[in-house]
Each structure stands twice: as structure tokens, then as C-alpha cells.
């Protein structure tokens, strides 16, 4: 069965201690339980803020450049994700819609190769 990434995106200044209330945590927990019961959830993970990232780039000469911070400089970064097994993109998108509602954040759904 195909696998899909369902990624939650947060703004750079996202602070879970402010943005996430008890109702949101209950909704996310309920969604996780629903995914487990449906047998589609492979893995789930929340990420630390993008400012905690360390990026590694390899220059053309082979030298490695390690820098603090995310690889991309954007206004939003992935805050967490699920890896799901779904029959097709339509089913994965249905779960992505539920994730967007539970997390109160934009969601990207993308198939794996």
C-alpha cells in the first residue's frame, strides 16, 4: 500500500505553550487514536522549533558546511508529521483534512516514491 507524508506547518514564532490548548491536544490525541484504529498510521512525530535545527551542506569541493538553523529560510517550517499507509491520495487527503482541523494549522500531503 502506498505511503504518504502528512506534514503540519507552523510559523517561525510558533510557541506550543501558547498556541496549543487542552482542546487542541485532545483533538490531536483523538486523531492519533483514530489513525491507529484504522491501521493506517506508520509513524508520527512532533519536531522542536526550526531554530533548533542544524543544517549540513556539501560544497562542490566536498567540504562540509555545518550551520545552526534550518536549511531553508522561510516563514513557516514543518512542526510535526505523520507517515500513513493509504489506498490512494484521496484517502491520504481525507486524513490530511482531519489533521489540519485537529492541529489548527496548514497541512501538506505528499506521496513517497
TrEMBL record:
Family the entry assigns: Belongs to the YciI family.
InterPro entries given in the database record: Dimeric_a/b-barrel, YCII
Top-level taxon of the source organism: Bacteria
Protein name: YCII-related domain-containing protein
Organism per entry: Devosia nitrariae
Residue ranges of domain YCII-related in the record: 9-101
